[in-house]
Amino acid sequence: MRHILSILMENKSGAMSRVVGLFSARDYNIDSLSVAPTEDPTLSRMTIVTRGDSSVIEQITKQLNKLIEVVKVVDLNESRYVERELMLVKVRAVGKDRDEILRLCDIYRGQVIDVSDKSYTIEVTGTSEKLDSFLENINNSLILETVRTGAAGIGRGERILRI
Amino acid sequence: MQISGAQILVQSLKAENVEYVFGYPGGAVLEIYDAIFQLHKFEHILTRHEQAAVHAADAYARASGKVGVALVTSGPGATNAITGIATAYTDSVPIVVISGQVASPAIGSDAFQEIDMIGISRPCVKHNFLVTEIEELAPTIKKAFQIAKTGRPGPVVVDVAKDVTQAHAKFSYPQEDIFIRSYQPVVNGHIGQIKKALQMLAAAKRPLLYFGGGVVLGNASQVLTEFVRTLGIPCTGTLMGLGAYPSRDRQFLGMLGMHGTYEANLAMQNADVVLAVGARFDDRVVSVPAKFAENPKKIIHIDIDPSSIAKRVKVDVPIVGDVGNVLTEMLGLWQKQELMFNPTSLDKWWKTIENWRSRDCLRLPETEHSELILPQYVVQKLAEITHYDAIVTSDVGQHQMFAAQYYPFERPRQWLNSGGLGTMGVGLPYAMGAYLAEPSKDVCCITGEGSIQMNIQELSTCYQYKLPIKIICLNNGYLGMVRQWQELYYSNRESETYFDSLPDFVKLAEAYGHVGMRIEKKSDVEGALREALAMKDRLVFMDFITDRKQNVYPMVGNGKGLSEMVLPPHMRESKADSDVNDVNDRDYDTRSVP
Lengths: 163, 594
Fold this sequence. Notes:
A: Alpha-Beta Plaits, B: Rossmann fold, Rossmann fold, 6-stranded parallel sheet, transferase (chain A)
C-alpha cells in the first residue's frame, strides 16, 4: 500500500543522506521525496512516498525515528490528509495543438507559465494521481520535458506535526 | 589561554575519564599524536592495524562497561577501521572512533589519503560527526560519548579535519550533558504495558524467559537473576547474552538457536508465554519466523530500541525501556501483587524440560583412538582449570560455538565475541582490550587457525605492552564451520576450506617473543593448559591439533524450525531417544532428532 511519511528533522548537511541511505540499505523503495526548511530554519520537513504492508511501514517509521537527527515521524495515512505535487511540463505547441492544450490546461486548472512560438510550459498542481492523469491525456508526442517535485502532504484539520 | 585543537581533543578525552586510546598514527592525526606525546593524559596503545585498534577499544568497552576509544588517521586508516566499527555496531557496543580528515580546504578535492569517512561509515554507526570548526570540537566529543553510551549503545565516529587540530581556541569542556532535541531515548517502561505483561505471564502454563546481549549492555544481570529465581521459571540466553545469568544454575537451559541445546530450543518452541529481555529474535535464534510461529505463543518483548521489537516476530506486549528499569518494576509488582503461576502446570513444564535435559545433548562422543583431541574437550578443561572465571574471547567459527556451548559463563562481560557481524579476527584484539580492562583476570582467546591469522600481527602489540594473554588455538586444519556446511549442504565438496600450508604457530609465537606450545595428545591437554595459565606474565600460544572432523551439534539447519534440530551422530537412535519421545511426543513438538 502507498504511504506518505512526513518527517521533521534537523536542517543539517548530511541529514537527508542518512534518511535516503536508510531506505537503500534496508531495501525499501522511495517513490518520491520532497524536502525543504520549515518556518523554523533549524528544521527541515521531508515528505516521502513509499510502499509496503503495515509491518514494513512500522519498521521504516521506527528506523527513521532511530536516526539521531530525525525529530519526529508520522505516517499521514493514519488519518486524513491532503497532498499536493507540482509539475512543470514543456510541450510542443504549434497550429491547432495550441488551443487544444489550453483547453486541457483549463480542465486540470493548470497554468501556462512560459510561452514561445513553438512551446508552452505548463504548471499543474494536485495529487500525484492527478498529475499522472494530465500526462495520460496530453498527446504524448507533444511532451518535450517534464519535471515533478514529489508529493508534499499535511494532516487535515487540527492535526499538526511540530516539536 | 588558547590551546590547539589537538590539545583540546586530548583534554576532552581526559575529561571523559578515558584510560586507554587504541590507535595508529598517520598524516592527518600527527598534531593529535604530538599532543598525546606532550600532554600524556591517557595511555595510547599502538596496535599493528587499525582494525585491531577498533576491536580492542570495542573489547575494552564490552569488558569494562565504559566507552572504548580508538584513533585512526584519514583515508586507509579510516577504511581499515570500518570492520571494527561495523562489529561494534551490530553488537551495540559503545565506542568513539576519532578519525583524522584532510584539512577543510582540501576536503572534496580527492586529496592524498582523503576518503569520505562520514559517508563510508554512515550505515554502520549510531551517529557520526565531521568537525571543521574548532569551536565545535569539544561539544562534539561530549555529544559523541553521550550518544555512544545512552539508549541502545553503539559506535560514534568523529571525523576531525586536520586544520581544526592545528587551529587554536579557548578550551572549556561541557560539564552537563548537551541537550539534543532529536535524541531522547525512552528508559522507563510504560506502566500499563508492564501490568499487562505481568497478567499474561502469570496466566502462563509454560513460561520461558529469553534474554540477550541487552541484559549485559544494560547492566541488568543482577535483577534478571533475581527475577528468574523469584518466579521459578526456566530461562535461556542468546550467544550475546551468555553470562547474564549464571550458566551452571539449574534454571538456565543453555544457549538457544542454531547451535542451542536440545532443552532450550524445545522449550522455546513449546512455551506458551515468552518473555524476551534485551534480545532481538535474530535469525540465528528463531531461524525462520514462520516455523517459530507454528507453535502459537504469546510474546512479551522488553527492549530499549523500539525498532528491535516486532522486527522479525509478532509481539503481543511491547515494552520499550531500559531492561534493568523494566525488570525491577516488574519484579516489584509481581511481589506486591503476590502473583504466582499455577503450581501444577509449572511443575509439569519443569518435568518436561528435565526430560529434555536428560538427553544431555552436549555429551562428548567416544573417539576412535584415545589420544585424539576433541576441541570441545579442550574448552571443558579450560573452564575447569580457570574455575569458570576467565574472560574468554573468541573468533568466529566452530571454536566459537564450542566455547559458547562448553564454557559455562557465570557472570556478564566474561564472554566477548562478535555475535552479530561474525567478524573473524576479533579474538586476539578482543583479548588485548579485555586484559587492559580487567588485568586481574585470566584472559583466554579461543580461536582457530583460520581466524587467528586474520589479525595475527597483534602478537607484536601484545609483546610491546606485555599482555599475558592465553591463546587457545583449536587447530583442525580447516575453516571448520564452512567445512561443516559444505559437508551438510554441499555434498562434502570442501571448496577452499582446507589449509595445507599453515605456519608453525610455535615458532611464530616465539618469533614475536612469546611462548609457543603444540599439543597433539589428549593426555597432554590438561597439563599444557595448567602450565600456560601458570605463566602469569607471558603470552602463551597453544596450538591444539584437534580432531579434523568434529561438527557443532545440536544444529538447526537452514530453513528449519527450532524443534527440527539435528543431534550429533552418537546420539541418534539411542535408547534415550525413545525414552524422551515416549514422554513428550504426545504433547510437544519434538519433530527433530534424526
